[in-house]
């Protein structure tokens, strides 16, 4: 079994099974059901293991995560069959919201007792048992009905509780009750404890975070600043920079760190240590990184979307220092004029249960362009990159969506094709407003690279009472555009667009486009008509290619809630100074 799991970790088949399962459910009309499956497939875990650390604990945990994900998928399918009686909506992980069902997995005196040894003997396709707390469950039917039963068998005869640590979807009472319907017996309290004795929270080694960060989810940790703090500094302090993690933060021993560079289809492979990377000419660039889902919470007001409920602060600006990627590729023997390659793939050291790392790719031309400023960064604002932001090495790709700025970089592959990772192929893509989870085909949409022009009002905050001084109020915010375009104007209105006021640029990098990677901080002193009590402030930005923001979210709505760059609108109460 160990060898079989090793083979599956190498090709990511466990995760691919879940993706195939979700795709197979595309005939369903229940979008909530599909969201459960897709949310399961898009969240993964890593217990800070490296590729070399394939110990028994990892294999067991990886298998449990596979079976747990698939089990919830099957439960969702059964709920769909009975949708006339119950509807299920997957829970979004939050810092404060959990649902518990106290009788699930509790000792049931009306059922027979089994031992862990007996459970472990039911690990064939004829009989598949698993445990949860003190409950013993027969999921044989699940295995026989699923095309991915061979993957599920990797964890047969063991506990599914490591999965429950990783995903919030199990907090749904209907899901837990459906699991309980497969209950056949009990474990003793002692054996239930033994079944999870080697289990630990995969997030327990995550770094401490600043209290000012507001979590959109805790496990994995994703958080942003209150927008009012975001515009206090042109360079966002490291500890206040928004955090976007897909998996637990790996612990990397820098003395043992190695970066592998491979040219697909050739025998060209180079391995560089941390110290060797630091010997390359040091290049520093000031660049803004923004999550594709920034301002998603506004788009979801039009219609619910899938994703973290980001406000307007999933963005930050910093100076990054490191080796130019083009220099490293040149050392590896990669010809920047080569016609053999179209993409450069990045793989992180954060891995899912199948051993497949977080991955993404960028166009080859961007990687080798001397004006592209792509670096393998080891410093952020003059300090070693913090763990949450990719220590020891992070790919910094200025002007490109944050998802391609891969953290904890472990491998680079120069290739003909894009990365085959879930996050490149089945996430971070835009779609028509008419596309829903019943009709979506991720193969029909390109992966997001350069982001569109965007702006946000950071002061005042929505609903804040603002004091009118000398018949004026002060509005402050940021603006940015992907692809190296410079912000040339920010317009602000308080009367629905009947009149506009041009903002002043308080902080803007002098670098010209198309190498203008940093945001612009702006402010506007807006005259207020006498007697006004309530206003709605709008802001829109224009970049150096004269791209501007769309007026509303209605016509740019998409099911993933990405590319949320409509006019920013902030309501405010007015208080007149006497």
UniProtKB/TrEMBL annotation:
Record-linked SMART domains: Cyt-b5
InterPro entries recorded: Cyt_B5-like_heme/steroid-bd, Cyt_B5-like_heme/steroid_sf, Cyt_B5_heme-BS, Ig_E-set, MoCF_OxRdtse_dimer, Mopterin_OxRdtase_euk, OxRdtase_Mopterin-bd_dom, OxRdtase_Mopterin-bd_sf
UniProt entry tagged with the keyword Mitochondrion: yes
GO cellular component: mitochondrial intermembrane space
GO MF annotation: an example: sulfite oxidase activity
One of the protein's GO biological processes: sulfur compound metabolic process
Pathway(s) served: Energy metabolism; sulfur metabolism; Sulfur metabolism
Source organism superkingdom: Eukaryota
Cofactors named for this entry: Mo-molybdopterin; heme b
Cellular compartment(s): Mitochondrion intermembrane space
Protein name: sulfite oxidase
């Amino acid at each position: 079994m160990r060898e079989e799991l090793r083979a599956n970790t190498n090709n990511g088949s466990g995760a691919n099974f879940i993706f195939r399962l979700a795709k197979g459910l595309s005939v369903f009309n229940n979008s909530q059901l599909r969201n459960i499956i897709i949310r399961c497939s898009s969240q993964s875990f890593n217990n800070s293991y490296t590729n070399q650390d394939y110990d028994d604990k990892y294999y067991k945990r990886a298998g449990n995560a596979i079976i747990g994900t698939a089990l919830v998928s099957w439960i969702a399918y059964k709920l769909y069959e009975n949708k006339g009686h119950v509807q299920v909506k997957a829970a979004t992980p939050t810092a404060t919201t959990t649902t518990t069902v106290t009788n699930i997995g509790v000792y049931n005196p009306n059922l027979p007792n089994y031992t862990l040894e007996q459970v472990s003997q039911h690990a064939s396709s004829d009989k598949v048992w698993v445990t949860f707390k003190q409950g013993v469950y027969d999921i044989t039917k699940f295995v026989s009905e699923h095309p991915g039963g061979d993957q599920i068998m990797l964890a047969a005869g063991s506990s599914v509780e490591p999965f429950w640590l990783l995903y919030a979807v199990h907090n749904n009472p209907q899901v837990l009750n459906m699991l309980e319907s497969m209950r056949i017996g009990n474990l003793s309290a002692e054996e239930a404890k033994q079944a999870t004795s080697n289990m630990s929270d995969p997030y327990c080694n995550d770094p401490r975070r600043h209290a000012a960060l507001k979590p959109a989810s805790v496990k994995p940790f994703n958080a942003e600043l209150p927008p009012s703090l975001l515009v206090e500094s042109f360079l966002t302090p490291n500890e206040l920079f928004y955090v976007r993690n897909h998996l637990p933060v790996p612990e990397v021993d820098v003395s043992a760190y190695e970066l592998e560079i491979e040219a697909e289809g050739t025998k060209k492979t180079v391995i560089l240590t941390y110290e060797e990377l630091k010997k390359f000419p040091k290049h520093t660039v000031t660049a803004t990184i923004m999550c594709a889902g920034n301002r998603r919470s506004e788009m979801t007001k039009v219609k619910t979307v899938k994703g973290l409920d980001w406000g307007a602060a999933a963005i930050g600006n910093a100076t990054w220092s490191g080796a130019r990627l083009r220099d490293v590729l040149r050392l590896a023997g990669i010809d920047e004029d080569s016609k053999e390659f179209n993409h450069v793939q990045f793989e992180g050291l954060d891995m899912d249960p199948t051993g497949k790392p977080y991955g993404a790719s960028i166009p080859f031309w961007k990687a080798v362009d001397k004006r592209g400023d792509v670096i393998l960064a080891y410093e952020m604002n003059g300090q070693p990159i913090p763990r949450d932001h990719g220590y020891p090495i992070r790919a910094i790709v200025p002007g490109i969506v944050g998802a391609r700025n891969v953290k904890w970089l472990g491998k680079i592959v120069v290739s003909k094709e894009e990365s085959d990772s879930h996050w490149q192929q089945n996430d971070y893509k835009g779609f028509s407003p008419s596309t829903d989870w019943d009709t979506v085909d991720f193969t029909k949409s390109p992966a997001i690279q350069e982001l569109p022009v965007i702006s946000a009002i950071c002061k005042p905050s929505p609903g804040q009472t603002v004091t009118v001084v000398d018949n004026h109020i002060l509005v402050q915010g940021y603006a940015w555009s992907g692809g190296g375009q410079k912000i040339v104007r920010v317009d602000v209105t308080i009367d629905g667009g009947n009149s506009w006021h041009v903002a002043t640029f308080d902080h803007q990098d002098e670098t010209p486009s198309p190498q203008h990677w940093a945001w612009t901080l702006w402010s506007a002193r807006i005259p207020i008509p006498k007697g006004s009590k309530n206003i709605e402030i709008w802001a829109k930005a224009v970049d150096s290619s004269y791209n501007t923001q769309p007026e509303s979210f209605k016509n740019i709505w998409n099911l993933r809630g990405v590319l949320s760059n409509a006019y920013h609108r902030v309501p405010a109460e007015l208080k007149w100074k006497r």
